[in-house]
């Protein structure tokens, strides 16, 4: 099915990349993608997609073209409906949102119900284009809130939020049934998010307390104490690695410092991950020169968390 995806504006690239790693994308605009999906259910896995619409049509972002599109579509709705409009910062539309919503109500045949519609026709306007569809899915943030680190049985400061972890897993291209490894699993956030989308998840950590904590947070967790420089997995046995690498503060650093740890961990990641598959690593310094020695860098992104912390995200193969 052809879908219009309305994306979060929290980061310019991550919302796009997590979708592109999973679905074919035919068109991209500001916070908008047109993608092909096997079903609407697959959208549940995306962390930074706000809404999904079944594709109906598209046109230039001007009132005259919008009216012409509605007339050409000649839609009839047996169920009560309403129109909704979302304008992105670069929309370029010469008509107000209210005017466009009224035009939808006028041109779609059927009963308009603003208060209790059974169908919502939604237009997203971005980059001088109108993307028109029927709303079929909206993001529910409450499960992510429930899984926030502070709400888990075992808490440790400095861990990533569930939505970011989910996006990183998606960026790896992981599919249900595949094996995801986090060799620095900490409190188990990656294991939780991977399990929720049907992946098999394994985690290791050099810190026994972290492993005990991850098992508290996910009772079925396959987690064990291990040195990331000497992973207890056969060659080519893991589909993807997704991990937030340690950076020295309140973590167990093994070996001869961070650079040595990163170097040897990358060697092991390359060994255990199946050839050609993608992995996603998060660091707090730019390790691209080091990573280049071990793998191909597919993507690099930065996310500013606060004044003293910027995450560097590497997609590697």
UniProtKB/TrEMBL annotation:
Subcellular location: Cytoplasm
CDD domains registered for this protein in UniProt: AdoMet_MTases, THUMP_AdoMetMT
Entry EC number(s): 2.1.1.213
Gene3D superfamilies assigned: Vaccinia Virus protein VP39
Keyword Secreted appears in the UniProt entry: no
Keywords: Cytoplasm, Methyltransferase, RNA-binding, S-adenosyl-L-methionine, Transferase, tRNA processing, tRNA-binding
Principal localisation: cytoplasm
Catalytic activities: guanosine(10) in tRNA + 2 S-adenosyl-L-methionine = N(2)-dimethylguanosine(10) in tRNA + 2 S-adenosyl-L-homocysteine + 2 H(+)
A molecular-function term among this protein's GO annotations: tRNA (guanine(10)-N2)-dimethyltransferase activity
Protein function: Catalyzes the adenosylmethionine-dependent methylation of the exocyclic amino group (N(2)) of guanosine at position 10 of various tRNAs. Acts via a two-step process that leads to the formation of either N(2)-monomethyl (m(2)G) or N(2)-dimethylguanosine (m(2)(2)G).
Record's protein name: tRNA (guanine(10)-N(2))-dimethyltransferase
Source organism of the structure: Methanospirillum hungatei JF-1 (strain ATCC 27890 / DSM 864 / NBRC 100397 / JF-1)
């Amino acid at each position: 099915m052809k879908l219009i995806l309305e994306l979060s504006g929290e980061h310019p690239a991550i919302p796009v990349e997590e979708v592109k790693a999973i679905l074919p994308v035919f068109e991209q605009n500001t916070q908008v993608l047109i993608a092909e999906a096997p079903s609407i259910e697959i959208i549940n896995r995306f962390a930074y997609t706000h809404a999904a619409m079944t594709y109906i049509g598209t046109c230039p972002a001007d009132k005259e073209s919008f009216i012409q599109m509605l007339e050409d579509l000649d839609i009839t709705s047996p169920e009560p409906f309403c129109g909704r409009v979302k304008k992105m910062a670069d929309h370029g539309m010469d008509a107000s949102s209210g005017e466009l919503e009224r035009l939808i109500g006028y041109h779609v045949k059927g009963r308009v119900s603003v208060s209790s519609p059974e169908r919502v026709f939604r237009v997203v306007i971005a980059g001088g284009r109108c993307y028109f569809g029927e709303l079929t899915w909206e993001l529910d943030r409450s499960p992510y809130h429930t899984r926030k680190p502070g709400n888990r049985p075992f808490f440790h400061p400095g861990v990533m939020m569930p939505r970011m972890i989910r996006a990183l897993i998606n960026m790896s291209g992981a599919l249900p049934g595949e094996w995801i490894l986090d060799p620095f699993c900490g409190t188990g956030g990656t294991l939780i998010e991977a399990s929720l989308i049907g992946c098999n998840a394994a985690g290791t950590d050099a810190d026994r307390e972290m492993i005990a904590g991850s098992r508290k947070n996910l009772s079925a967790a396959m987690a064990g104490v291990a040195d990331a420089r000497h992973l207890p997995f056969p060659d080519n046995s893991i589909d993807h690695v997704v991990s937030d690498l340690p950076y020295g503060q309140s973590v167990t650093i093994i070996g001869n410092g961070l650079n040595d740890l990163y170097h040897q961990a990358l060697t092991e990641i390359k060994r255990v991950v199946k050839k050609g598959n993608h992995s996603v690593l998060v660091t707090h310094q730019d390790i691209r020169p080091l990573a280049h020695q071990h793998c191909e860098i597919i993507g690099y992104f930065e996310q500013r968390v606060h004044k003293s912390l910027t995450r560097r995200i590497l997609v590697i193969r």
